[in-house]
Structures are given as structure tokens and as C-alpha cells.
Amino acid sequence: MRRSDNQLQSAVERPTGVAMDLKVARQQQRRERTPSKAYHVVPLAQDADNPSEDEEDASRCSFSAAMDEDEDATARARARAQARGDDVDRSSTSSGEDRPRRSSRRRGPRVSLASSRIQRDKLMRTMENLILQEAELSSAYERFEYSRHKCELEHDEITARLEQYQGLLQHAQRRERELQASGVLTDAIRSQEDHERWQQTKIMVQSTLPELLARLEEKIEDNGTKIRHIQERMERIRAQRLELREEIAEREDEIAVALAACPR
Fold first, then answer.
1. What is the rounded CA–CA span in Å between residue 238 and residue 138?
2. What is the distance between the alpha carbons of residues 202 and 169, in angstroms, rounded to a whole number?
3. Which of these CATH numbers, 1.10.3470, 1.10.10, 1.10.287, 3.40.50, describes 107-261?
4. Quick check: helix, strand or coil at residue 126?
5. Closest Cα partner for 121 from 248, 258, 263, 260?
6. What is the CA radius of gyration of the chain?
7. Under a CB-based contact definition with an 8 Å cutoff, are residues 151 and 223 in contact?
8. What is the pLDDT of residues 64-113, one digit of tens each?
């Protein structure tokens, strides 16, 4: 009875082992059918159908070599990129260092040229203002000079007339004294026309002509003062114009030097 039980148990166990072998074989076939990737999967347990240890070592070595090559390539690429970046930085820094020097070299003569031109233009405007002032003073000088000359002529004419009237008045007074000395009445001898002339001459000599002479003298003196003031101002303006001409000549020389120094 015991033997029959053992045989029955072995008969039952045999189909089960065959089924397991078939299952493992099918799994292996599925693994072989699936496309292989860039890396190899290391099996956890070795079966009869699994690859050998030598093949696994070879695959591992090839995988590590490929990884090393990739790392070397990436390192070389990084080194090249870094070297290019250093060259760019050096070129940029060198160009940045050279640019201020070049710009400063070019900038110096140009700045001096611009400043000299600005100063020259300011001096020219000042010169124009002085010329206008001198022209105005010259016209005023001519007016006052003409007025003074006219007043002097009038003064001379009035002085001559005053002397003439004074002579007539003295002659009339002397004649009147002579007639009074001879005992002849002047009122009876003197006509109406002579009486009016006498009165006019007396008024002219005593009040009118002296007043005109005083006014003319004041006007002549006033014109003379104004003319002297104008002459002084004109002298100052001429001195300023001479100084400005010298400064303008200096600026022109500076402009010429700056133009020669500027690069074309």
C-alpha cells in the first residue's frame, strides 16, 4: 500500500514539473522576442536557458565603456565650450580695455576743438555786441557834436548881435547925453519910430540877448559833457575790442591745432 501511494504521488508530481519547465521556456522565449535596449538586464537567478557569466561580463564591460566614452565626450565638449567662453571673455575684455583708450585718444582733440569753437563763438557774439554799442555811441556822438556845433554858432551870432545892440544903445545914450547937455528936449526931437527902436534895443541888450547867451552856454556845456562821456565809453569799447581780437586769434590757433590733431 505504501508503494502504491508513492507511485501515485510521483505520477502526480511529474506533470507538475513539466508544466513548470514549459512555463519557464515560454518566459524565456518572450524575453528573446522583446527588442533589446542599450543596456542588459542582469537576471536575479540563473536558469538553464539564461546567458553565461562571460557574456554578462562582456555586456557589462561594453556598457561601462560606452558610458565612459559618453562622459569623456561630454567633458571634452565642456572643455571646448569653456575655452571658447574664455576666449570670448578675453576678447571682450581686451576690446573693452582698448575702446576707452581709443575713444579717449579720439575724444581729447575733439573735446578741445568743440570747447575752442564754443569759446570763439561766445567771443564773436561779445564782439558783435561791442560793435553795436560802438555804433550807437558813434551816432549819439555825432548828434551831440552837431548840437554843440550849432549851439556854438548860435552863441557866436547872438554874441555878435549883443555887441551890435550894445553899440547902438551906447551910441543912443551918448547922443541923448549930448542933447541934454545942449538943452534940447529929447522927447520933442525924438520921433515915435526912434522911441520904439530905442525901447527894443534896450530890452534886447538888457534881458533878451543875455538870457539867450546863458541858455546857449549851458547847452554847449551839457553837450560837451555828454560828448566827453561818449568818448570815454568809446575808448573803453575799443580797448575791449582789441582784447577780444587777441582772444579770438588765440581760439583760432587752438582750433587749427585741434583740427590737425583730429583723425580723419
1. 12
2. 7
3. 1.10.287
4. helix
5. 248
6. 67
7. yes
8. 555 566 666 667 767 776 666 555 445 444 444 444 454 444 556 677 77
* Maximal C-alpha separation, the chain: 224
* Tens-digit pLDDT profile for residues 35-58: 554 444 444 444 444 444 555 555
Dihedral sign for Cα atoms in the order 37, 39, 44, 46 = positive
Q: Phi and psi for 46 in degrees, rounded to 5?
A: -90, 130
CA angle 232, 236, 238 (to 5 degrees): 115
Which cell numbers in the block locate residue 64? 561601462
Cα gap 138→132, rounded to integer Å: 10
Q: Which amino acid is at 153?
A: L
pLDDT in tens, 195-215: 777 777 778 788 888 888 888
